Each structure stands twice: as structure tokens, then as C-alpha cells.
Amino acid sequence: MLxxxxxLVAAGSLLALxxxxxxxxxxxxxxxxxxxxTVPAGGGVDTVTRIFADRLQRRFGQPFVIENQGGAGGNVAxxxxxxxxxxxxxxxxxxxxPITTNIALYRRLSFxxxxxxxxxxxxxYPNVLLVRKDFPAKSAQEFIAYAKANPGKLNYGSxxxxxxxxxxxxxxxxxxxxxxxxxxYKGTAPALTDLLGGQIDLIFMELxxxxxxxxxxxxxxxxxxxxxxxxxxxxxxxxIEAGVPDFVxxxxxxxxxPPKTPAPIINKLNQAVNAIITTPEIKKQFEDLDLLPAGGxxxxxxxxxxxxxxxxxEVIKRAGIQPE
Length: 324
Fold this sequence. Notes:
Layout lengths: L1 H26 L5 E5 L6 H17 L3 E5 L6 H8 L7 E5 L7 H4 L11 E16 L7 H10 L5 E4 L5 H13 L4 E4 L3 H9 L5 E5 H10 L2 E6 L25 E8 L5 H15 L2 H9 L3 E2 L4 H22 L5
Parallel strand pairs: 1-2, 1-3, 5-6, 5-7
Antiparallel strand pairs: 3-9, 4-7, 4-8, 4-9, 4-10
Helix pairs in contact: 1-9, 6-11
């Protein structure tokens, strides 16, 4: 009799869990929400997150407070969010690294990237090949020929070891059989300073910042790393058109939640972001920033993150990049 009573109570508790989660989601958010951004203020992830935080605050009537915790390729912020209560009041906004490639780049992590709850991908930045303004090659085809003819003589910058800019260059070298020298920096700004000063020859980086320099004539975009040309630079070919098959690379910004955050809360946030993306105001802002809208379901993000992790981990292994 006691055993049967125990199982009845246990079964009732299990049935109550989904109901409790639904009730929690119905009133969510009832207090301020922290969004921990994995980069310092002013970067691409930070800019996009602030756009969405403002709209989420208007939508839900509660503050969505940005907190920047840059460092270790996003690992500092990821550790904070991973250990936070799974109640939807602490979220992470990140570039790909902490939830994809860092598992292959660091010997020890204080979190398991695969256990974060995917919420939504906010936006995507196409990557481009940007060269110093006086670089001898004037087209992507000429650049490839020049790199092949001068192995080990070109210096390429990146935002740091294992960043998208670094791995994109490694992918380029693998696919073209070229060899260039890596010069890692601590972020985009110092790399661009040296590009403009002629200390490095090129960088693979996101379109939004590169386009401004291209238009000003201080540097030149030779190709975009997308499967088709971008609308804002229709004259610039893709790297695929330049003769490098399957060369696609972009940077994206995503929201994740601590492990075991209830699905109803995840879905509520996901639906809100997807609704925000479709508004004319956001579409215009994205166009002005050379951003591509993303969106989709949590399941879509989970699938994409898994695919990106596998793809770039293979690049890391082929390039012989050792974990720190």
C-alpha cells in the first residue's frame, strides 16, 4: 500500500512539472533579464544584442540588461551563464566560438558547450576577403595566383587564434593549397589598424566593417565568402566564383540559455525574437549594418550549431591548431 502511494505521489509530481513550467512561462519575465555578452562593448555581437534587448524590453515591459564579459574567446561569459539558474533570467549572447569551436581549441572548459539550451540565432554577417589598399592583386583570381606564387610571404591578420577570421583563412589555404603567415590580434580593431598601416596584407572579416573601408578607399574587398553575391556589393564576386569551391564562411550571433532552462521559456523568447526580426524597423537597421536576418526555431539552431562545430573542428584539426 505504501509503495503504491509512493508511486502515485511520484507520478503526480512528474505530471506537475510541465504545468509548473507553463505557468512560469506565462508570467515570464516578471523581473529584469540579464544578457551576458561574450565580447567587450562595441563589437558586432554587442551591437546586435543591444538592438534585440531594446525590442524585447518594449515587448515584455521588463528591462533586458546587457552585461559584457569578454575574454578567452567567449569562455568567461559562457562559464557565468552555464552556472546560472535555469530560469530564463540569465541569457548568453555570443559569437560562434564558445558554443562551437572552443571545445577543440581549449584543453579545459568549465562548461559543456553542447548542454547550453539553444534559443535563436539573431543575425549573420557575411565574411569577406579584405586587403590593404595598395595590394598588388586587383581581383580575387589575381589574389589566389599571387598567394600561390609567394608561399609564406603574405601576412594575414585575425581577431585571435581560433576566431572565425583565423579559421576562414585556414580554410582558404586548405582549399587553394596556399601558405600564408598568421598574425593574431586581440580583436578586430588592432588588426585593422595594422592593415591600414600596411603591416599586414589581408584579413578575412565580417562585411559590415569592411564595407565602410572599401567604400572609403582605405582598403579593398576582393571577394565575399557567401554562396551568392551580396546585394549591397553586387560588383564583388563570391570566392566560389573566383574558383574556390565550397568556400562559405560567415559570422553569426546567437542567444543561448543555461542547461535545463524550461522549454516554454525558451520558446517564448524564440517567438519574440522571430517576431522582432520581421518588423520593418529591424529590417532597415539590418540593411544599414550589412547584416542578414536569421531566426528559426530552437531546433534549427541546435542543428546548425552541431553542423558548424563539426565543420570548423575539421578545419582546426587539418590546420594542426593545438588547444591552449
